[in-house]
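User: What would this chain look like folded?
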Amino acid sequence: MILREQNRTLLEQAQRLLADLTDDGFVTNRLEPGRSGIGPHLRHVIDYYRCFLDGWSRGRVDYDVRRRDDAVASQRDAARAAIAQIAHDLEAIGEADLARALETRGDGAPWCPSTVGRELQFLVNHTLHHYALIALLARAHGVTPADGFGVAPSTLEYEASQHQGSPASHAGA
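Assistant: Here's the prediction, encoded as structure tokens.
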């Protein structure tokens, strides 16, 4: 199932980045001291996944009721464990569940109709948005995220298509 796999791929990217970071790199923002570092951004992403996973089977996902777990924001091991649990829990969602209707709310907005598939798509977009910020913060700590980290799949496809026809792509051929 594509949407579940896209989310799992993003979670795996976070696991790889966590392995490359130091504890200081996880919590400190060198670009804007006093502002959120990688840990709080990743915790926010994890919170949204947890909200989805807590509510999808009941038909109501409330993104305003987040755990805001300080350990996940400040300890790489806690973040790793949370990500591994989320990846495991996503396995419960099957292809037939994608069209399942549910209601969501977030940012103080009223309940809105949605589907499991739409929310999995939202989680991809939300995660990519935060990963783009996390990538900048990681680079400030001298850690280069893997290619494609924080970049939408459609952007990667577009960039690849632009390079296929260029003279440089035929060098050595």
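Confidence is low (pLDDT under 50) at residues 169-173. If you want, I can go into more detail on any region.
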